[in-house]
Design brief:
- This protein has about 120 residues and is an alpha+beta fold.
- Helices cover about 15% and strands about 30% of the residues.
- The protein is built from 2 helices and 5 strands, in the order βββββαα.
Amino acid sequence: MKPKSFKNKSKKNKEPSAPEHEGPIRVRTPKNNQLIGVILQRYGAARMLVKCTDGKERNCRIPGALRRKLWVREGYIVLIEPWELDNDKGNVIFQYNPTAVQWLRKRGFLDKLDEDL
């Protein structure tokens, strides 16, 4: 007799549950000196070139606490916080999902980015 397999067979026919509502409940908007930007180019080592809503291109980085949580690519919309000492650099602190980007476009937060691109 063959030994019985102990694999969990209940995972086979499960479908992912659909969200109860459409669209995000809350979308994080820029506060104080935070800006929204789009990633233009990845440099490697958690650094990238970001075009911001104020018209500047900043060399941004993902801080150590978020390095394993944020996986970004070119074209993603992110929330950045410019450095106080060197305004040409900044930290990426949040990444928007596609439904949040639609919400931001509808409310006019990304108008300055769309004009430049």
